[in-house]
Specification:
The chain is an alpha/beta fold and 211 residues long. Helices cover 57% and strands 9% of the residues.
Length: 211
């Protein structure tokens, strides 16, 4: 396995946990995005455990690059992150991540989820992503809330990112669109929900259980 995380203490701690399982060997630790692709191509690991927040490029961009190359296109990739917001989960699914796990899970759960990811390609030619329990709970909540909210999928993404405290520039980078496009989305969302600023927008989102 290759681990990619920008925090050394997280990488080292995760490596110790994984190797304590007795069936996982970590062949490389990567600090930032440019290190991941060469490590994967050279070492050919069975799986990549990838953080979203990486220097230079985020984890989504890394996954996209892996999926675009014939030699790494089917490499099992699992996000291991602190992000539980809807847009992050949606982006991971859209890009073909094999799993989305949060860093609040126990070591035993981590082993179990990774085993599920590892076994999935052998069990089915169309394997579903593996989500940690807290994400599965949120997926159900999001699906239940979407029809009642009256918001489009993109509006939900924007609303969740605003509520998470991201700037318009950061949202643009996350969604692969221009800052102007995000500006327009935020302005339209404020008008649609009858609020005047981002604080009110965030409050509205939490009041209605949309994030």
């Amino acid at each position: 396995m290759v681990i990619a995380d920008d925090h050394a203490i997280v990488r080292q701690g995760t490596r110790q946990l994984l190797e304590a399982s007795g069936w996982i060997t970590v062949v490389a630790e990567c600090h930032d995005a440019p290190e991941v692709l060469p490590a994967v191509r050279h070492l050919k690991p069975d799986m990549v455990l990838l953080d979203i927040n990486l220097p230079t490029q985020n984890g989504f961009e890394v996954l996209k690059q892996l999926r675009e190359r014939p030699d790494t296109a089917t490499m099992p990739v699992v996000f291991f992150t602190a992000h539980v917001e809807r847009p992050y989960v949606q982006q991971a699914r859209q890009l073909g991540a094999n799993g989305y796990l949060t860093k609040t899970i126990t070591a035993e759960k981590l082993y179990d989820y990774l085993q599920q990811v590892w076994q999935a390609p052998f069990a089915s030619s169309i394997a579903q992503p593996v989500f940690s329990d807290d994400i599965l709970s949120k997926l159900t909540q999001w699906e239940d809330n979407t029809p009642q909210s009256g918001l489009t999928a993109r509006e939900h993404e924007i609303l969740t990112l605003v509520a998470s405290g991201l700037t318009n520039k950061q949202m643009a980078e996350q969604l692969y669109v221009s800052v102007k496009t995000v500006d327009n989305h935020v302005a339209k969302l404020m008008k649609k929900l009858g609020v005047n600023n981002r604080s009110q927008l965030t409050a509205k989102a939490y009041e209605n259980g949309w994030v």
